[in-house]
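Extended Data, record PKD domain-containing protein
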Amino acid sequence: MKRIYKLSLVAFFCLIGITAQAQKAQIKYTVTPGVFTPEDEVILEIDLAGSSLAGKEPYIWAFGPGDAITNTSWTSSPDIAKFTKVADDKWKYIFVGTSFYNKGASDIIGKPFSFLVKTKDGGIQSEDYTPTKFSPILFVPTLFRNFPVRTSQYDALSLYLDQRYTASPNNQRFSPTSINIRMLDPAGQLVGQEKKGLPVVKQKDGSFGYTFLPEILFGIPEGQKVNKAVYSFSGTVKDVNGLTVPYTTEEAEVVFLDLK
């Protein structure tokens, strides 16, 4: 009888240990913006206070459209999966869906953004959370546009001029032939040499565009931060006397995401 009693106690405490181990941390979190597309910059903020993850360095494990690039080894998450500390047990993680999941926007739209938070070795983890789905990308026609809408200095970038969407008579009437581009660092200083007179290509919709890799076109050194690309289009237009004269549009800019 005593032996049975002892075995029962052992089984009881083992069950308690297994149950405690199986319990997952419940954390507080916010996602900004509340509605986002695969090309939007998203900020995930977490608060680990009062959970079993409190005091630990958190790592993200994300899924939904598929495994995120952070999902390498459960027992050894990479540095790119680590949250950035804000204060105490508050942390944040910034991502863009297309880069985060290494998929095209069309493969992500309508799919859920799901995640959990874990320690590097996976010994402690949170519940699974699915705050929302990726929304469709809404095209807003403007004189200047770029693709991708959200991009980094390491990605191929296309810059477009669509003369249908401007109130300026000169912008409507001039004949575009080239684009001028310069790169600026976070301090507003020029990176490399400004490129002028790069030939543009007329698109099927009537717009004009130019596609390039910033790193290659500007010979950006490794480790050099680029904050934005500033550009304008040039060509010719008829003046009030009917003479053909040079013309350059106002400048537009593309602010790069800091993905590295």
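Summary. The chain is about 15% helix and 35% strand.
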